[in-house]
Amino acid sequence: MAARPSKDNGFLGSGTLVLLALEIDAKMLKQVLITQPLPNAHLNELAGHCEFSVLSGRQSLASASMRDELAGCHGLICLLTDAVDHSVLDAMPKLQFVSSVSVGVDHIDVGVLTERGIPLGHTPGVLAATTADAAFGLLLAAARRLVEGDRFIKDGNWRLDNPWSPDFFLGKEVSGATLGIIGLGATGQAMARRGAGFDMSVISWTPSEREMPGVESVSIDDLLLRSDFVSVHLALTSTTYDFINADKIATMKPGAVLVNTARGGIVNELALAQALNSGHLYAAGLDVFESEPVAIDNPLLQHPRVVVAPHIGSATTVTRAKMVELAVRNAVAGLGGRRMPHCANPEVYPLTGKHEL
After folding, report:
1. Residue 210 has pLDDT above 90, yes or no
2. Is 311 among the catalytic positions?
3. Considering 305, 311, 320, 342, which one is annotated as catalytic?
4. Catalytic residue among 74, 145, 263, 305
């Protein structure tokens, strides 16, 4: 019999592998692999439907040591940091579903899953407000030079011989400025509401041509030319990779601020660094990078007006708990052969092409 969840804290994961199951014949249960420790309450729910193992280390699913574990799995619950590529999927011949604790699924080979009729769950809808809060926080911090000011004081530079003056730490005005939103999904819409709350003029461009009351829909070039602040809210796909490239950055309004809380690969980091260093752009606020963790020698980290965060746009206790809850609900549906509440490749289900609510 496998061990039950510990009650001394809210998370599982001590040791190399933690096995959980109900007190029934394990041979009757399907096997699910969870790549990182998750809150106990939701794992207790999952334990009623399967036997599962939780990896405690940062093991790559593609490593040779994982082959036996993968071979017996009927389901996988993963994070955005887990690369689930063709080779990993080939190692899981019994796989019936994948459930990712994320909205974006660019870390997963969705095409292979779809070809094999395997549903992929994700967690949309619950992190839009939290991520928009982070995006607007980065916007404000970059515009008003808050991180620079913090360093200035902590480095001992605010002294009597270096006092406040009328031109002391001047920043960019946010109220009344134009906010351009690239991608008007749930997070983009939440960002638009925050901009409106700061009396900003909000314009948008989105591949879906979605519209929102109070937000002017414009072409991408018009958005870049007019916006004092540009906030990126696209999913990373083959068509959006390097979307904000050197040409688009050159099109941006001089002195503008770029904010990205979507995915790092959407913005060309070298072109952004060059635009900042040349003075074409005023500042940037970045929660995501093309390679994470970001290398310490990344040129963006050297610029004083680049405010950075370690991919924490959805990192609040409430939001992360909601994401795990959705991921477990997707997994339970997958185990039972039912349609997932939130499926990223709904075409695997017959007679429908839409997500369930």
Report:
1. yes
2. yes
3. 311
4. 263
